[in-house]
Design brief:
The protein is of the alpha+beta class. Helix content is 34%, strand content 20%. Helix 12 links the parallel strand 13 and strand 14. The chain is globular. The chain starts with a helix and ends with a helix.
Length: 565
């Protein structure tokens, strides 16, 4: 297929072509997956550059090993941000012409990755689509609305908050290009994403008028609802006509989710304000209803995961594989009538596969689970109503002293994050240091952030908040994040401990509270390395887990969990 692409490159008089992972809505788990089609790389983030004689694949630290396995035969792999495309391309004597689809890139992403290293040529027809017949299976499913009881806030209230921000900044028009922000603002959900209830839509707000762009077939269920009668609905192709009909001098766009294609349409008439969509910050602060529903989703999820952990830890016949384990866990989750589908593809890696940070078992990689190996399982669910994400690392026989000690250092980092005094340390980059300190004492580290933001019945990865080396967003009450330090030894094993946590305020104190309820494997802990505070955390955590999920467990599962308290 790469050879066909190169023929199309010749036809378009370009020297290379850029293929991103994202679609035109910049969703993480987007469809179609053009990058996988051309490169075989199945990770959630990456970008390929096909030249006439060379092929490059750029991924972040989570995916370097996976990319090498999946795409190493045909692509040279580079890690972003250590190496960006401009540093490779500027070494060339000639300045090459690179083609790209303007609907799939923002101006900021092209500038940061390519600078002045090449001539970037927009091509209206996507060349990957010309080769592959990539059908979107979600096209026909209609959007639906969340009641105020589920969302916890009326649409009018959210619009009022946004309007107040726009007024202060003297913004006359705003383009909300990220579908998850449209979903939050208008309390709607959909089926346009394989792992999130995302409705693919975009909005323009002008003088209290709302112009809603989507596939018009999908809005039948919401169009005539009382709260949506004032909204004007249009097909995406009508975007240019609506922009040209609007008045005012300025137009706010989000620099991280507004495509070059849409920006050029707006720029033809308006002065553009490159802002960050205010909905991101508003959406990040969950209301009391959202926290309550997320907590209830985690009780159901915790019961399912605990049943799975009991099953796999006590199973005598070990004749099963990673895929068998993945399917078994999903069956436990499906016992809840509020479970909808996984919030991402389950990562179930045993032994060397566990070292691949975002591993996905397939027919070729699927390993039989060996009692001597440790097993890493990262999974989550979308529930009515809430989103979960949890990782547990477990052993089936006595682990080596090395593995036990590293696991304990990861656990100490996990506990340190939870125990952060948020009144004094309140940015992701500061908290991230606390997670790594115990590993760094023995010159170890991990190649991913310590935590990501999480949406409410939306995306499992959702900012702007994060616990990472590069995030300085202030952590505020109502925010939900993951707490997931780890360690990975290439081709040997992987360790990660992940809970979702939220920020609670009580009087003047701000602190983390756990949402995730599932036992941590005590057989992997060197208790001599834990101090009194850390031991107390473990005891309290397992006690809290037992009190909330034990009623869903059978007598043997209850007894097993109670022994951990």
């Amino acid at each position: 297929m790469i050879s066909l692409l190169k023929k199309l490159m010749d036809n378009n008089n370009i020297d290379g072509y850029i293929i991103p992972k994202n679609d035109e809505f910049f969703s993480e788990y987007s469809f179609p997956n053009r990058l996988k089609s051309i490169s075989n790389f199945s990770g959630s983030a990456g970008m390929a550059i096909i030249l006439k004689n060379k092929n490059f694949l750029f991924v972040d630290g989570r995916y370097t090993e996976q990319a090498s396995i999946e795409s190493g035969k045909n692509f040279k792999i580079f890690e972003i941000p250590k190496t960006r495309p401009f540093s490779i391309l500027k070494k060339r004597k000639d300045k090459i012409k690179l083609g790209f689809d303007p609907k799939l890139f923002t101006e900021i992403s092209l500038k940061s990755n390519f600078r002045d290293s090449c001539d970037l040529i927009p091509i209206s027809n996507n060349l990957i689509d010309e080769i592959f017949n990539l059908k979107n299976n979600y096209k026909s499913k209609e959007f639906y609305c969340l009641s105020e009881i589920v969302a916890g806030e009326k649409i009018e209230s959210k619009l009022k908050k946004l309007s107040s921000i726009l007024k202060k900044k003297r913004i006359q028009n705003i383009f909300i290009s990220a579908p998850e922000n449209c979903a939050w603002l208008l309390n709607i959900r959909g089926f346009d994403n394989p792992n999130s209830p995302i409705p693919n839509c975009q909005i323009i707000i002008n003088n209290k008028n709302i112009y809603f762009f989507s596939d018009i077939k999908k809005i039948k269920r919401i169009k005539n609802k009382k709260n949506y009668k004032k909204i004007k609905f249009y097909e995406f192709k009508e975007f240019i006509n609506i922009v040209n009909s609007l008045k005012g001098k300025n137009f706010s766009i989000d620099k991280n989710s507004c495509s070059i294609f849409n920006k050029s349409i707006i720029l033809s008439k308006f002065n553009i304000l490159n802002e960050i969509d205010p909905c991101y910050a508003l959406k990040a602060i969950k209301n009391k209803t959202e926290i309550k529903n997320m907590s209830e989703a985690h009780i159901m999820d915790g019961a399912a995961l605990t049943k799975f952990l009991y099953w796999i830890k006590t199973k005598k016949n070990f004749n099963f594989t990673e895929i068998d384990a993945e399917k078994k866990l999903e069956r436990f989750r499906k016992r809840s009538n509020k479970f909808l589908y996984p919030s991402f593809n389950t990562i179930a890696g045993t032994g060397p596969n566990g070292s691949i940070i975002h591993y996905r078992a397939n027919k070729n990689s699927n390993r039989k689970i060996n009692k001597k190996d440790i097993f890493l399982c990262d999974s989550g669910g979308q529930y009515k109503y809430g989103t979960t994400d949890v990782t547990r690392t477990i052993c089936f026989s006595k682990p080596s002293t090395k593995v036990k000690n590293i696991f304990t250092r990861v656990l100490k980092g996990h506990i340190a994050v939870f125990n952060t005094n948020l009144n004094k340390i309140n940015t992701g980059e500061e908290i991230d240091k606390r997670a790594r300190i115990f590993l760094k004492k023995i010159n170890l580290d991990y190649g991913h952030g310590t935590g990501h933001g999480v949406g409410y019945f939306l995306n499992v990865h959702e900012g702007p908040q994060a616990i990472s080396k590069y995030n300085n967003i202030k952590i505020q009450p109502g925010m939900i994040l993951s707490n997931e330090p780890g360690y990975y030894e290439k081709k040997k094993f992987g360790i990660r401990i992940e809970n979702l946590i939220y920020v609670k305020k009580n009087k003047n104190k701000i602190f983390f509270k756990n949402l995730t309820l599932a036992p941590i494997d005590m057989d992997l802990i060197n208790f001599k390395m834990l101090n009194t505070l850390e031991k107390k955390y473990l005891s309290n955590y397992h006690s809290d887990t037992y009190s909330k999920i034990s009623k869903f467990l059978n007598p043997n599962e209850k007894k097993w969990l109670l022994n951990l308290v």
